[in-house]
Amino acid sequence: MKIVDRTRGTKMKKTIFQITTALALLAAAGVANAADCKVTVGLVMELTGPAGEYGQAGAKSVEMAFRDINAAGGVHGCDLVTDTRDSQSQGNVAVDAATQLVQVKKVPAVIGGIISSVTIPILTSVTAPAKVVQISPAASSPTLTALGREGKTNGIFFRTITSDSLQGIAAAKYAIDKGFKKLAIIHVNSDFGVNMVAEFSKAYKALGGTIVSTTPYNEKQSSYASEVTAGMAGSPDGLYLVSTPVDGATIARTWISQGGPQKFLLNDGMNSPDFIDSVGADYLKDAYGTSSGTTPTPSTDYFNKNYKDFSGIEPTNPAADRAYDAGAIVGLALAIAGDDTSKLKDDIYKVVDPKGTPIYAGKDEFAKALGLIKEGKPIRYEGVIGPVSFDQYGDITGPFRLWKIADGKVTTDGELKMEDVAALKDKIK
Known about the structure:
This protein is an alpha/beta fold. Helices cover 48% and strands 19% of the residues. The chain is built from 15 helices and 15 strands. The protein has helices spanning 7-36, 52-71, 91-104, 116-130, 142-149, 164-177, 191-206, 225-232, 245-257, 273-279, 298-311, 320-337, 344-351, 363-374, 418-428, and strands spanning 38-45, 79-86, 109-112, 133-136, 157-159, 182-188, 210-217, 238-242, 264-266, 287-292, 357-359, 379-383, 386-387, 400-406, 409-416. The chain has a seven-stranded mixed beta sheet with strand order 7-6-8-9-10-14-15, with helices on both faces. A five-stranded parallel beta sheet has the order 2-1-3-4-5, sandwiched between helices. Helix 2 (52-71) links the parallel strand 1 (38-45) and strand 2. It is globular, with a radius of gyration of 26 Å. Mean pLDDT is 91; it is low at 1-8 and 10-35.
């Protein structure tokens, strides 16, 4: 009599069920891992110190750009995240932070700093030697171009702001147009301040202006009375103040209290609600400034409508718009690079390929970009500040915004086109 093992079929079914269940769990784990994977980018921002207002806005802008790319699908299914360090507006602190990010965290790119006195030491001490891409949203010193020309950047540095060598010319033209005939200059004693004043002074004098005094100052002093006294020598008809909002407000208040003329020319970083509130709008009815300008695109509209809701910060903050673009460019370059980030500096140029399909800011546009990248097709990111094009030194060109303070707010007063600045530069030589 044949004995049938009726448990055999049951055991086999149980085994198949267990294998199927295990495979399903593994597949689910794979999906979870894909969703949980992250690509970390280093941020070194001036979250505190004299430039803290800029760095806070810059960090939020990068986070917003990464949020939008992640919502569009991320970098090969992975989320972009930031490892943000506070430079405290100090070069030595910034170098320590960048060293941690590059040497320990092994980030593929560093975004920052905001000011040149932070950006330059990061570049020369950390990112250039390590050949790690660095992009600054707001460091405008001509020294950064010079380092590129001298072959000291390894081609890894980029910035989304125009050089002060050009802004100085724009500021000089605007000063003459606004009737500044005799100026005193008080400026921060840093690479940024020294270079800005040098470029401005040459252009201003060539255009017929007179500089009665030039006085440098060191940051975070408790008093600037002696600098103001020196600046007022020669009876100027106005003050060109090259500073940051905190120190700048203290200097401006001292200038006013000592009887200086209430007519100011200001650098781009003084485009700040905090500066206006601290000095008082009633004393700034004759205050003018220049900033790296924008050529409006759909990205500009998107950013202006959405940034404050995301960050709680006004989109007019000097570092905000161009920091979003820095984040978007790095994020899209990482999508192009895939697993091989060794040539990320080349992929930065591919993000703004003149022959590529135009791409704008926001989730839907980034989804379009990621699809084109996957297909191997070129893209051209046209950012919040306009269509960006980097030269071999990582510099951009663009127009300059002319602004004034009216009713306690910064308002646009005009624009100086890049070709006009170039023509002035040729004339001044």
